[in-house]
Write a structure and sequence with these properties.
Bound molecules: cytidine-5'-triphosphate
Number of helices: 21
Strand order of the largest sheet: 3-4-5-2-1-8-9
Shape: elongated
Distance between the termini: 78 Å
Largest sheet: 7 strands, mixed
Protein name: tRNA nucleotidyltransferase (CCA-adding enzyme)
Family: Belongs to the tRNA nucleotidyltransferase/poly(A) polymerase family.
Oligomer: single chain
Strand content: 5-15%
Helix content: 40-55%
Length: 402
């Protein structure tokens, strides 16, 4: 259909990139990228007129996206050439043809296109040897400066190599090493690094491969010298998904899996460096602070909970200050059966306990406001957690006795 619209507008249309790669790999991919040698926005309008999706136009970039049900997404761009004013900059763009559009891309396996116009429908366009690299199972850049111009491609190379179980071709490896030695990663904003790391850790099935590759290129070290990722950390990061599955049985609230994985990823960082490292990986400052608090306290939590008998109130006070994500992290990280048991017990039986009486109630009982209020409230809470009182009446009675 896109080809037909192209014919009507007298412009060449191609489907390119990940879709073509995944088609050859016989993998589903519903992110369709169309490139046209002509007006991309007009093509998108006409195409959407026929298929009735939700069209969003980005005039400034000459691009458009059509969203269809079932997460099908169609990106339409005008063929363009990109050039970089300086290394690691965002690229400048100008209109061009399919060759230049493919040449601006990252790896040969992502640089293939299939023609969609009637006169050459289905013709495979493979200027850079993508098919051969797919057969040889390798990730190869098109030119030596690729990683210097766009250092995020270092992460992408690793992500694709891990995902498809490919190797990174020898010269491409050298270009990665050169870019890292030239400190190109430092030129990337925290936002861009964060996005790439998150893309990588979301591909959980192949995490051991991707993390090992990141390690062997010393990428974690260049991101932050205190970021140690050893085989134990890799194993634990991989286990996060199982710990999460366990937690889903205990609570219907959704958890932020990425946060748990990031916590585990930085678990060997020295306590005084945690906050600094986290800031590179998480944008929200309040979240960084709360995660730092939990990570700093984790050893003392493990110590309290790693005993055969711990009373309910001790469990409650040890775990109450922490978010669900931190609890899952403790569960996964400690690997201690007692700690795990008490965390699950807390989540199931204790986490929702809170007191109902208020300062107003105490005032009505004739107690003068002061530090005594906190003492009474704390002991009411303790009695409730320990199970000696149950309801509001019990709370009031208990407070009176105090
Ligand atoms: N691309 C690039 N350099 C980048 C990011 C993207 O050259 N830093 C190019 C790639 O050639 C890619 C295309 O832009 O094919 C679209 O990017 P993206 O959607 O991220 O790639 P996919 O290959 O579709 O990746 P995924 O399968 O993970 O969605």
């Amino acid at each position: 259909l896109a080809g037909e619209v192209g014919d009507e507008l007298n412009q060449k249309v191609y489907i390119v990139g990940g879709f073509v790669r995944d088609l050859l790999l016989k993998t589903d991919n519903w992110d369709l990228d169309f490139v046209t040698e002509g007006d991309g926005i007009e093509l998108a309008r006409q195409l959407n007129h026929k298929i009735g999706g939700k069209l969003t136009i980005h005039e400034k970039f000459g691009t458009a996206v059509i969203k269809l049900p079932q997460f099908i997404s169609i990106d339409i761009v005008t063929a363009r050439r990109e050039y970089y004013e300086y290394p690691a900059a965002l690229p400048k763009v100008e209109r061009s043809n399919i060759w230049s559009d493919l040449f601006r891309r990252d790896f040969t396996i992502n640089c293939m296109a299939i023609a969609l116009n009637q006169d050459n429908f289905g013709e495979m366009i493979d200027y850079f040897g993508g098919m051969k690299d797919l057969q040889d199972k390798q990730i190869r850049v098109l030119y030596n400066l690729s990683f210097i111009e766009d250092p995020t491609r270092i992460f992408r190379a690793i992500r694709f190599a891990a995902r498809f179980n490919f190797t990174i071709e020898k010269s491409t490896c050298q270009y990665i090493e050169q870019a890292i030695s030239a400190n190109m990663l430092e030129k990337l904003s925290n936002d861009r690094i964060r996005e790439e790391i998150i893309h990588i850790i979301r591909e959980q099935d192949v995490l051991d491969k991707s993390l090992q590759m990141l390690n062997s290129f010393k990428i974690f070290k260049s991101l932050d010298p205190s970021l140690t990722i050893n085989s134990m950390v890799i194993r634990k990061v991989k286990n996060v998904r199982f710990s999460l599955e366990g937690f889903r049985q205990l609570s219907s609230k959704p958890f932020n899996q990425t946060i748990v994985m990031l916590m585990q990823l930085i678990s060997e960082v020295d306590t005084d460096k945690i906050s600094e490292v986290l800031k590179k990986l998480i944008a929200n400052e309040t979240l960084v602070n709360s995660i730092t608090q939990s990570m700093v306290k984790r050893r003392s939590v493990y110590e309290i909970l790693s005993q055969e008998e711990v009373d309910r109130y001790t469990i409650y006070t040890a775990l109450k200050p922490h978010s669900d994500e931190a609890l899952i992290f403790f569960y996964n990280d400690s690997e201690n059966p007692y700690v795990r048991h008490y965390i699950a017990f807390y989540k199931l039986k204790l986490s929702s306990i809170h007191i109902k009486i208020t300062g107003k109630d105490l005032q009505e009982m004739g107690i003068k406001p002061g530090p005594i209020y906190k003492m009474i409230m704390d002991s009411v809470l303790k009695a409730k957690v320990l199970g000696t009182i149950y309801d509001r009446n019990g709370e009031l009675e208990f407070a009176k006795q105090k």
